User: Fold this.
Amino acid sequence: MPFPAGFAAAVGGGTRSFCVKGFAVAEAADERVARRNMWLIGGDYVGFALGMAFLGPTTLLATLVHLLGGSAVLVGSLSTIQSGGWLLPQILAGRLVADRPVVMRYILIPAYAGRMALLLAVPAVALLARRHPGQALAALLFCYVCFVLGDSLSSVPWFDLLGKVVSLERRGRFFGLTQVAGGLLAVGAGLSAKAILNRPGPPLSGHLLLMVLATLCFLAGTTATALVREPRGEVQHTRAVTWGAYLPRLMAIVRTDRRFVWLVAVRWFSGLADVATAFYTLFALQRLRAPESMVGLFVSAMVGGGLLSGVVLGHVADRSGPARVIGAMMGLRSLAIALALLAPVAGGAGLAAMLLAFTLTGMANGCYMVGLSNYCLAIAPPAERATYVALGNTLGGLVALAPLAGGLLVEAYSFEALFVLALVCALVGSALALRQPRAMAMDALGHGT
Assistant:
């Protein structure tokens, strides 16, 4: 016997209502997972920013190398290690994770290994510094190299993960907000570093405590990423990509993607201009007679600049596209170097000029994620994010030896000679940044060029 029409209508309407509610519940659950993933990967970003403030490769760590007897060339090697050691190996990681639907283990294994290597530097320096400072310096640099290499190999899959869990429309705000959070905490870290270095205690104890705090921040951030629920990504092949297929694809990207070539060229000039940053601290200590305790204020100024960058430029990236942020980055680098050049003739305002130079440098460094990385993720096809990131970073690392050449230039001539050369590179890079290709991936979001 057929059901009455009213009963059938009621059941049909109830079924449709149940389905709609079911989809709504599922969508709400997916949104909760997405927000949780964003909070966790953002926590890693913030933890890393805080750890770098305590480590201070161009400030605190550079001072420790100097105290252990390191020359200007060795101080310059820190920037070479940081840039070259982080950028150049990424092409290997790119091949390893290319076309992988999930990448979490490729993040965690090298990241945890590198962070534990950095922690080992603390007892090594503590035991060797007094009687064998040369060996202590060698151990410190070796552990720092291991840390940078571990972070390098984990960064390519980390960016691929970020591309999956943070949508393109949210990335500018995401980078901006995480930079603000990391900047606020890092300003406090700089002030804490000043207090720690001023307290009485055994030689180098303050610097070693700062390294411990840095490592704990790095480990906490990596653990946050480990808790992300990774969605499966798009793949083009079912098998791992071979070198025979990977290398021709890299060449094809360089030959055919004008946006990518422009990005790499701007990065080269930015890297050459950034050589000056590695010597700002030594310049202030030796030429301007700044007290060692001012190093903590330099750290706060730099991370404070990154904070300002996050407040302003994340919004700019979402509204106008990351290319505008890249142009701002080159302008900020030019102004920072010019201030450093003027500091010795500024009289009593010399140290204030250096603090402002560190602030502008921090703002320029804050453009890396919002501008350079965001642009690379935007122009890359979803299945090739890891390949674009790895190739871009490896090509960017070709200027990694520049800080060593900068150290030789300082020893042979002067800080000012290096700063003038860096300023020329910054100005050329600024001109190039204003001539980005017309065809932009950001057009898909309604951003003008």
